[in-house]
Amino acid sequence: MLIEVLVEVGITVFVLLTLLISCAVLAVARPLRPSHKPAASRRGGGRPLFPRGP
Length: 54
Prior knowledge:
transmembrane, 0% strand, rod-shaped, transmembrane helix, mainly alpha, membrane
């Protein structure tokens, strides 16, 4: 019976940690691609990813 409780607790902790890690990854990845400034790169205000030669 003790083993069953340990397995259930382990699975629960694993699932909670997985959810927390995925939420943290999403929170970190969101600012890398800001969707509220698409016009800045169109005007040339941002640095182009693939700059053309001189």
